[in-house]
Amino acid sequence: MILVTGAAGMSGEMIIRELSDQGVPVKALVRDPSRVPAFDKDLVEVFVGDMARRETLGEALAGVDTALMISSASEEMLETQCAFVDACSAAGVRYVVKYSGTELGFRRERFRFARMHAEIEEYLEQSGLAWTNFRPSGFMQIFMREMPGIARTGELRLAAEDITLASVDARDVARIAARIVTSSDQEGRTWVITGPEALSMDEIAGKFGEALGRPVRYVPISPEERRQDLLAAGLPPYFVDGLIEQVMARLEAPRAKVDLTAHDRFGVRPTTFSEFLARALPADGEAAAA
After folding, report:
1. Geometric angle at alpha carbon 197, from 167 and 250, rounded to 5°
2. In angstroms, rounded to a whole number, what is the distance separating the alpha carbons of residues 173 and 98?
3. Other C-beta atoms within 10 Å of 35: how many?
4. Phi, psi (5° rounding) for residue 202?
């Protein structure tokens, strides 16, 4: 039996739906019962529990062989995921797939979430459990956060200078993740997953313009301007500080690398940014479910 944590989040929900589409029974762990997605009840059994509190996980972990570990990027992520690894060990779970990110290659002291993911990976690898590390690059879906500003001003405002990003469609990632957790030969592997193109911000703005049928231009802004924009959008200060650290780390490594090894290995055709936007932006230019 497979358990997917973070089932109410975008990644967890997409992976569970992909497993359901394959007819694979799965357990889904959520912390907030009011946020449970409408899963296929014949294949998905939902459990409410807190990854950091072993006493809430008994039924969710019972009979589980494989756990896909996802949780939100928060101040408690390191403690939460390490506690979950311990709970898996105590419950007899054999194999844990850790959902991290490609930016573990950054200097850890520069980006708190890369540092946390790296420390969790190390903790898992030393736990005695079988493991796989799963590292997608930034999601194309994240750019949809910029749609209000693009719609209002025709500008994509980011603190990204002239860097390139090899963003990946979260749906591609879900398809690959579903294949990994149902495979028998992935233990001890680390997979890096990117999109098929390393695009500059000017190119990304141009693709938004093509999809919307009107000009969109990239406007580089300072990290402090970006911080104020994110705070004004209502993001928590701790998370905003982490995103600004990510910005600074990316500016130190401005050229993204494309790696489609996982797409090729698991038979997933990589989605281009234009294809993603065609799905995510209907004709009226409003963001659709991506």
Report:
1. 50
2. 13
3. 11
4. -60, -40
Return d(Cα 126, Cα 160) in angstroms, integer: 36
Backbone phi and psi for residue 4, each to the nearest 5 degrees, phi listed first: -115, 120
Q: Please give the Cα distance from 220 to 226 (Å, whole number).
A: 10
Q: Which domains are delineated in the chain?
A: 2-136+170-192+258-266 (3.40.50.720)
CA angle (183 as vertex; 177, 189 as ends), nearest 5: 70
**CA-based max dimension of the chain:** 56
Q: Which two tokens stand for residue 31?
A: 């912390």
Q: Which residue has the tokens 């993001």?
A: 235
Q: Is the dihedral of CA 66, 7, 239, 76 positive or negative?
A: negative
Structure tokens at 35: 């946020």
What's the rounded Cα separation, in Å, for the pair 81 and 63?
Answer: 20
Q: What is the pLDDT at residue 10?
A: 92
Q: Cβ atoms within 10 A of the Cβ of 38, count? A: 8
Residue with tokens 């090729």: 264
pLDDT, one tens digit per residue, over 3-49 is 999 999 999 999 999 999 999 999 999 988 888 888 988 999 999 99
* Ramachandran quadrant class, 145 (left: phi over 0; alpha: psi -120 to 50; beta: rest): alpha
